[in-house]
Every structure is written in C-alpha cells, then in structure tokens.
Write a structure and sequence with these properties.
The protein is an alpha/beta fold. It has a single domain, classed as Metallo-beta-lactamase, Chain A, CATH 3.60.15. It contains ten helices and eight strands. The protein has helices at 2-5, 100-108, 142-145, 164-181, 199-203, 208-215, 257-267, 270-273, 286-289, 313-333, and strands at residues 50-57, 63-73, 76-86, 120-126, 184-188, 244-248, 276-279, 310-312. Strands 1-2-3-4-5-6-7-8 form an eight-stranded mixed sheet. A hairpin with a 2-residue loop joins β2 (63-73) and β3. α7 crosses α10. The radius of gyration is 25 Å and the shape is globular. The N and C termini lie far apart (66 Å). Residues 1-33, 140-167 are annotated as: Disordered. Residues 148-157 have a biased composition (Gly residues). InterPro entries: RibonucZ/Hydroxyglut_hydro.
C-alpha cells in the first residue's frame, strides 16, 4: 500500500497557500503522471478492523465508524464494509425514567449515571466484489461474542495480542451483524440468467439467486422464522427500521436494462420487490431512454430511473404491467 499511498496528494497543504504543492505561490502546478488528482491518502486495512472516520460527525455529535469484513472474490483478497454511527454516551437505562433532581443527586454522590460508551447503530453495508461464499455466515458463537467485548468490541483499540485469528472472528461477527441489522445493503449482483449460476463463484461474483440465499435467515422476510422485515436488533429507540437492498455491478451481458429487470423480477421474491433498488443507468439503451424519436405522451423506462441511476424493482414491475395494458388497448383500437 505504501507505493499507492505515495501517488496520492497530502490532503493538508504545508505551505498555507491552499494549492498543496509546497511553494507558497498559490498556483496549482501541472500534475506529474505518477500523481493522483484526488487529495487523499490510501490506508490499508485488514478484515475485522474498526476505523473511526475522524473529522466527520453526524447529527447530534454521532461519530462515524467503518468496520471491515472479509469476502470471497476468487483468488483476490477483498473486503466488505459496514458504516456505523456511535452516539455520545447517554444515561444508563436504569436511570432513564428518573426525575432530573434524582439523577443530579446520584451524580453528585459519585454514582456513574452515564454509559461508558455510546450505542452503536449500523447504517449501511457494502459487500464490494464477492461471491456467495464470502457472505455466508452463521450466528456468532458464545466464544466469538466474548472476544473483545462482543459485537461492539475490538477494532482500532484492540489489545496488543490482537492476532489474525481474533481479527477473523471479528470479521465474521461484523458480517453477521451487518446482514442482520443494516437498513441499507449495497450488494453486488453480477449474473442473472439461471444457466450462469455455476459461473458466478468461479468468477468471484454473485448471482441473483446467491443474493437471496445470503439474505435468508437475516430478517429480510425470505422464509425466515421471525417473519422478516428487520427487528431493530440493538437499535436506539427500538422499533423496526425500513430495510432497502440495492443491487449493483450487473453484467453488461444482460443489456438492455429491461432485460436485466425482467430477470430480476422473475427471481426476487415478491416480499423484496419494493425494498429493492437496481443500478441500471449504464444498461439503458437509446430506445429505453427515449432516443431522438420520443413521443411525449408515451412513458419510457428512463422515466422511472432515479437521479442515483437506480430503479425500484416493485415500481418497475407495476410500470411494465401498465405498459402491457396500454399496448393491448392500442391493439384493441386497431
């Protein structure tokens, strides 16, 4: 990583003129071919680590954290990432309902009324490039939970004897926690045709049926014993959190976008359709965009693609049904 890191610019200029080239003249010089145009540093991380994104805070003083877990991308080492927020320490649950005067009296008497650490909340999971093997995980064992304080322990401040075995245990625990609790899962989904499923693991990528298998048993409502939909496990305030799945990295062999979406509509369970967004902007054909011959009164697929390049799968299914009904009405008129 050091060679790559050397190609990036120091994000903190040392000469005070803001151009980052160290000469103090304020003018930005032309970059050499071995220099990045991005003001950033590349930092290598390993599975099972926790990194605080310093300098970035969410609302209410929440800190942003990144946790890493190992995935399986063929013969290439690869990681997935979990984005979390940690709230400032609050009152311990046993004191939450007491009047302010009583809480103040307890504090003055030396009682520790606040939690030592704020609560951690999973915000999003990004799988990166992986095949199904990288996302299969069982519930952590009691031994795993005991490592460095359970699901919220470990990370950057781990003990000196933090060896590879401990990191691997945390990596598996982080993956389980992310799939179980995250309200947003960004999951790669490269292959869609049924006959391509055997190709997926060899290429180190996911098939749509692999995505369903990976989510099974993690509260997504796919034949889960708990009925699915997310239970807010360990969440602040309790209650359910809406869960969303975003599928990306769809192979260009499934162009145009409507072909890919039809395959997904056939494969994704009905209970997931309205929770699923699909990144299709790069798959849209000229015809699906409207091209040069667009008729204003006719809807095109691009009309339901959001500004982020994604289309909601449930919305697409309803749009497709409406287009079929419209075509039938036109045929009946003829």
């Amino acid at each position: 990583m050091s060679a790559m890191d050397g190609m990036c610019l120091d994000p903190s200029p040392s000469d005070g003129d803001g151009d980052g080239d160290g000469d103090g003249d304020g003018a930005v010089r032309a970059r050499r071919r071995n220099e990045s145009l991005m003001k950033m540093n590349v930092v290598g991380v390993r599975p099972g680590e926790e990194i605080e994104l310093k300098g970035i805070k969410g609302r209410d003083g929440k800190r942003l954290l990144l946790r890493t877990f190992a995935v399986s991308h063929g013969s290439h080492p690869a990681l997935g990432y979990i984005l979390l927020t940690r709230s400032p320490p609050g009152l311990k649950p046993e004191y939450a309902g007491l009047p302010g005067k009583e809480i103040g009296a307890l504090a003055r008497s030396g009682v520790r009324i606040k939690e030592e650490e704020g609560r951690v909340r999973v915000e999003a999971v990004y799988t990166g490039d992986t095949c199904l093997e990288g996302l299969l995980c069982a519930s952590p064992t009691e031994e795993d939970e005991g490592e460095n304080g359970g699901a919220e322990g470990g990370g950057a401040g781990a003990a000196p004897d933090d060896d590879e075995a401990r990191r691997n245990k945390r990596s598996r625990r982080y993956l389980f926690q992310g799939l179980r609790e995250s309200p947003l899962l960004l999951c790669e989904c490269t292959f869609l045709d049924a006959e391509l499923r055997d190709m997926a693991p060899a290429k180190g990528h996911m098939h749509v049926l692999d995505v369903i298998e990976a989510l099974r048993g993690h509260g997504w409502g796919i034949d889960d014993a708990d009925g699915g939909g997310g239970s807010g496990n360990g969440e602040e305030g309790g209650g359910e959190r809406r869960r969303e799945l975003v599928l990306f990295h769809i192979s260009g062999r499934h162009r145009p976008a409507s072909v890919a979406l039809d395959l997904l509509a056939d494969a994704i369970p009905v209970c997931l359709a309205d929770k699923t967004g699909v990144a299709v902007a790069s798959l849209l054909s000229d015809k699906e965009k409207g091209g040069q011959t667009r008729e204003e009164e006719r809807a095109f697929l691009a009309d339901i693609v959001g500004g982020d390049g994604c289309v909601n799968l449930g919305e697409y299914i309803r749009w497709r049904e409406e287009m079929i009904r419209e075509e039938r009405r036109v045929e009946d008129v003829k």
